């Protein structure tokens, strides 16, 4: 895949980039190794000062960063501004909490003193996706750097300007040369980086196939990995739920980021007692979503990030329909006005009567396409929710205590949200089970992923 910024709303190529060659790569890896030796000895207070400065830069220049994001991957501008603000939040969270999360723990044993100490690992490679092109990077970089590691970013090939902008933020924040570097490389060079002895660990956020590949390369090298992969999150609605709130949130949860979020609700599982009403309202609100120019404040859904993603989505819908699924609204490319006629737009779509072996049943659909299911009761709802190989997030809407208890206990997911929409928060751990990956980001668990948990025993 070429490394290039292509505006998904217009098809215009903004800028193309050359991949690093072998000697440039070697230089960057050596710089990372050298800077780690000094950076690991800096205090939490020094690192926090730089991280807080990064937060200020993110907030101060949020509109210009938002323009870079929207122009490269098409998310609505207003959401891109919020993304820059959320990155500032995670920088502040770890600036203020890293020292506490990584403080020595004293354990009583038969020694004079036993301590658990947390120490940085070294250079951590982050292979990142384009869908939240700032947030995904900061939620890795803030904890990794606050723990004293150095970061190497291999960003998705369609967001090089975001990658370079983030490197620049870290430089302006005062992080020493080599503490955070962007590697402009394609995915075919990732193996070579993981195999390099100067790289200690790797974290990947992306698709299941990319996760399998990176984990097997890292496994051969016995290097620590964290994998944040795809999802096909269920959104369950029971009769006791506030239906109006459930519908509004369901549409938002499906269409957020133009439908391209790992934790977007993708399968809507609705109890038969309220199904008809939910379906009618849900289709109405989906139809009312405004598709168009992502720079326009009034736009709800912008273009898909690349022409390939649009093609894949189109195919998933076509195959599902050919297998018997019914389209209640949408189901085709969206025809925008003349200036946007080459953009990757797709209509907000609702599918029902979805056959079990078709893509819309349990696969991840990355775009504004909702799969709607009717169930007879809670057992059926939980069974259908868990049918997917993924296990990232799950939402359930109910005001019944017993039902709530069962959803919390029985949904196979890294997080369960009751009467709300699955979302990440710097204070709470984030990650999945099953094919959605392993390891956690954010909160105390997130910062403890890339540290050596060293036992110290003193007689
Ligand atoms: P992707 O194709 O897997 O790409 C993600 C990153 O991995 C990119 O930097 C890509 O580089 C690289 N990559 C792809 N194949 C690789 C391979 N074989 N070896 C090494 N690196 C490889 O995923 P995407 O389409 O950009 O992102 C969408 C996916 O990410 C969805 O499945 C979504 O659910 C998931 N995601 C998960 C989370 C989470 O937190 N769990 C968050 C966001 C997104 P190139 O661009 O150069 O190919």
Oligomer: single chain
Rough outline: globular
Q: Provide the gyration radius in Å.
A: 23 Å
- What is the straight-line distance between the termini? 57 Å
List how many beta strands DSSP finds.
20
Mean pLDDT: 97
Helical percentage: 40-55%
* Number of discrete helical segments: 15
Characterization of this structure:
With 459 residues, the chain is α/β, with parallel strands linked by helices. Helix content is 41%, strand content 21%. The chain has 15 helices and 20 strands. It has a seven-stranded mixed β-sheet with strand order 12-13-14-11-10-16-17, sandwiched between helices. The radius of gyration is 23 Å and the shape is globular. The N and C termini lie far apart (57 Å). The mean pLDDT is 97. Bound molecules: NADP nicotinamide-adenine-dinucleotide phosphate. NADP nicotinamide-adenine-dinucleotide phosphate (NAP) binds next to helix 8.
Task: Write a short abstract of this structure.
The chain is of the alpha/beta class and 459 residues long. Helices cover 41% and strands 21% of the residues.
Provide keyphrases for this structure.
alpha/beta; 15 helices; 41% helix; 459 residues; 21% strand; 6-stranded mixed beta sheet; binds NADP nicotinamide-adenine-dinucleotide phosphate; 7-stranded mixed beta sheet
């Amino acid at each position: 895949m070429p490394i290039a910024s292509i505006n998904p709303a217009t098809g215009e190529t903004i800028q193309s980039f050359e991949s690093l060659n072998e000697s440039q790569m070697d230089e960057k890896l050596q710089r990372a190794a050298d800077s780690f030796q000094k950076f690991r000895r800096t205090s939490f207070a020094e690192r926090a000062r730089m991280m807080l400065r990064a937060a200020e830069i993110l907030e101060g220049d949020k509109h210009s960063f938002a323009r870079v994001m929207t122009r490269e991957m098409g998310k609505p501008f207003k959401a891109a501004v919020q993304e820059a603000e959320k990155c500032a939040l995670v920088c502040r969270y770890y600036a203020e909490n890293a020292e506490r999360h990584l403080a020595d723990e004293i354990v009583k044993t038969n020694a004079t003193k036993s301590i658990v100490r947390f120490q940085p690992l070294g250079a951590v490679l982050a292979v990142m996706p384009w869908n939240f092109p700032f947030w995904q990077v900061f939620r890795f970089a803030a904890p990794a750097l606050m723990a004293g590691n150095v970061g190497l970013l291999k960003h998705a090939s369609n967001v090089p300007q975001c990658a370079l902008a983030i490197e620049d933020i870290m430089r302006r924040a005062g992080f020493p040369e080599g503490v955070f570097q962007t590697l402009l490389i394609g995915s075919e060079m990732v193996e070579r980086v993981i195999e390099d002895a100067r790289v200690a660990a790797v974290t990947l956020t992306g698709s299941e196939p990319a996760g399998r590949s990176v984990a097997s390369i890292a496994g051969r090298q016995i290097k620590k990995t964290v994998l944040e992969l795809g999802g096909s999150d269920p959104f369950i609605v029971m009769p006791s739920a506030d239906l109006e709130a459930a519908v509004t949130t369901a549409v938002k949860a499906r269409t957020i980021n133009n439908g391209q979020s790992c934790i977007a609700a993708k399968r809507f599982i609705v109890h038969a007692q309220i199904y008809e009403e939910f379906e009618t309202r849900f289709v109405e609100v989906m139809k009312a979503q405004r598709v168009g120019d992502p720079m326009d404040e009034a736009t709800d859904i912008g273009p898909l990030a690349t022409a390939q993603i649009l093609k894949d989505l189109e195919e998933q819908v076509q195959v599902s329909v050919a297998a018997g699924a019914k389209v209640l609204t949408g189901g085709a490319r969206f025809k925008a006005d003349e200036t946007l006629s080459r953009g990757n737009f797709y209509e907000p779509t609702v599918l029902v009567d979805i056959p079990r072996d078709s893509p819309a049943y349990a696969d991840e659909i990355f775009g504004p396409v909702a799969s709607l299911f009717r169930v007879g009761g809670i057992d059926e709802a939980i069974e259908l929710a868990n049918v997917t190989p993924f296990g990232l997030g799950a939402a359930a809407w109910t005001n019944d205590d017993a039902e709530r208890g069962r959803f919390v206990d029985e949904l196979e997911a890294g997080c369960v949200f009751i009467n709300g929409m699955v979302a990440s928060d710097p204070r709470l751990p984030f990650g999945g089970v099953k094919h959605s990956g392993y390891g956690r980001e954010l909160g105390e668990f997130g910062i403890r992923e890339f540290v050596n948990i060293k036992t110290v025993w003193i007689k």
